[in-house]
Amino acid sequence: LRTVPSTAGLAEASGLLYSQQYSAYPATAGEVPFDVAGGRLPQNVTYPYTANASALAASRSQSFVGGAPGSGAATPIVNGYGLQSPFAPAAGMYGVGHPHAQLSGPHASLQHPHYAPSHIHVHTQPQGQHSAHTHAKHSAQRHQQLPSAQAPLGASQQASQGPSAAPAHHHQKHAHGKPHRKGDPESNRFANVQLEELEGTIFDVCKDQHGCRFLQKKLEDGQESHVTMIFKEVLPHFSSLMTDPFGNYLCQKLLEHCSEPQRTQIVTGVSPDLVNVSLNMHGTRAVQKMIESLSVQEQIDAIIEALRNCVVMLIRDLNGNHVIQKCLSRLSGANNQFIYDSVSASCTEVATHRHGCCVFQRCIDYATSSQKAQLVQVIVDQALPLVQDPFGNYVVQYVLDLN
Q: Using one digit for the tens of pLDDT, what is the confidence trace for 210-251?
C-alpha cells in the first residue's frame, strides 16, 4: 500500500483499480488512504453491495473518468497487469464526468483478482447525500434486468395464459424429480393389461422398467396362479435376470413370494453361476436377497458349495465382499465354517486388502469361541508384517481390543 499527497491528484498503488480525489477529506491528513484488503476508506464515500454483474452494469451511469482535482470524480489508473481498469470506459469515449460513461474497450472482460465487478461498486457521492431516489433507481434497474426477480403471476394472469403458467410444483408428483405426464404411453403401457395376455413374453417384460414394475405388483397381489406363471417363465433365465438393471428387482421380489419348493429350484438352478453373479453390481443385491430368504438346509448347502472355493476372491471384490458378509450375518456358525477356513488359510492376503481387512473384522464379530481362537492364532503368527501394513494394522488392533 502506498499513498501520495492529495494535491498530486492521483494515488499510485500497484494493482489498485481506482484512485480517488476527495475534496471533503480532512486537509490536515495530507494523504488519501487506499486499502485493497478492505480496510478503512474515506467516510464521505459509500460502497453499497450489488448482487450481480447486471446490477453493477445498471449502476454504471455514475462518472468514473477524469475529474478536476477536488471534483470527487473517480480516476482510472493502470492496474497491476498493465491494463486499464475494466470498470472504466476507453479513454476519450466520453467527456469528463459524462453521465453515460460506461464500460467498453478491448479489456472489458478482464478483472483484477481482488475486485470482482459482481461485488464492488464505487459511488462518488458523499455519504448522506446518496439519495433514496438513487437507490430506488438502481433497484428498479436490477429488477428490470433480472428475470428471476419478476413478481409471480396473479390468478387472473395465470388463467389468461393457460395451464402452462401454473406453478411447476403441481407436476412434481413422482420420484426422481421427473414431472408426471398424464398421457405418457410409456408409463401407461401396462395400465389395462392382464397378466395372461403376456404369457410367453414375460422374460422380455422383466427387462423393461415399466414391465418389471407391473410384474412385481402382480407378485405382491399374492395370486398363486400369477406367481406360478411368472416363476415358470423366469426360472430358465434367472441367472441373467439377476444381473439385469431392472430384472434383478423382479428376482428379489419372486424370492420373497414364491413357495419353498420353487425357491429351492431357483437356488439350485443359479448355484453354478452364483460367483459370477455375486461379482456384478446388480447381481450382488439379488444374491444377498437370496441368502436372506434361505429357509431349508438343502438351499443353504447349495449356496455353500457354490461359494466354497472362491471365498477369498469374493472378499477382495467391491461387490462380492457383501455376499460373504451377508453369509456371516444370516447363516449359523457351523454353516459359515467354510469362510473361516478360507480366511485362516489366506490370512495375510485377506487382512492386507482394503475390503478384506473389514471382512476379517466382521468374521471376528460373528465367530463362535472356537472360530475366534482360530482367527486370533493366525493373526498372532503374522503379526509383524500385518502391523506394518496400511490395512493389516487395523486387524491387529481389533484383535488386541478383544483382551
A: 999 999 999 999 889 999 999 999 999 999 999 999 999 999
Give me the pLDDT at residue 316, please: 97
Distance CA 212, CA 230 (A): 11
- For residues 206 and 242, give the distance between their C-alpha atoms in angstroms, rounded to a whole number: 11
Rounded CA separation 205/143 (Å): 53
Cell of 305: 458349495
Asked if 282 and 241 touch (Cβ cutoff 8 Å), the reply is: no
The candidate with the shortest Cα–Cα distance to 67, out of 21, 23, 15, 128, is: 21
Report, as an integer, the average pLDDT of 316-325: 98
Q: What is the pLDDT of residues 4-28, one digit of tens each?
A: 444 444 444 433 444 344 334 344 4
CB atoms within 10 A of CB 372: 17
Cα Rg, the chain, nearest whole Å: 37
Backbone angles phi, psi at 140, to 5 degrees: -65, -40
- pLDDT of 158: 45
How many whole angstroms separate alpha carbon 113 and alpha carbon 228? 71
Specify the residue for cell string 395376455: 197
> Which residue shows C-alpha cell 447525500?
129
**Cell numbers of 68, please?**
478536476
Chain-centroid distance of CA 24 in Å reads 53
> Does the model's pTM come out above 0.85?
no
Amino acid at 41: L
Is the Cβ–Cβ distance between 195 and 216 less than 8 Å? no
- The alpha carbon dihedral of 18, 20, 26, 30 has a sign of positive
Cβ 243 vs Cβ 282: under 8 Å:
yes
CA atoms of 226 and 297, how far apart (whole Å)? 27
End-to-end CA distance of the chain: 64
Q: Which of 309, 352, 303 is nearest to 326 (CA)?
A: 303
Q: Which residue has the cell 465382499?
A: 321
Q: Give residue 183's pLDDT band: very low, low, confident or very high (50, 70, 90).
A: low
Buried b (16+ CB within 10 A) or exposed e, 316-344: bbebbbbbbbbbbebbeeebbbbbbebbb
What is the grid cell recorded at 380?
498372532
Handedness of CA 140, 146, 152, 157 (dihedral sign): positive
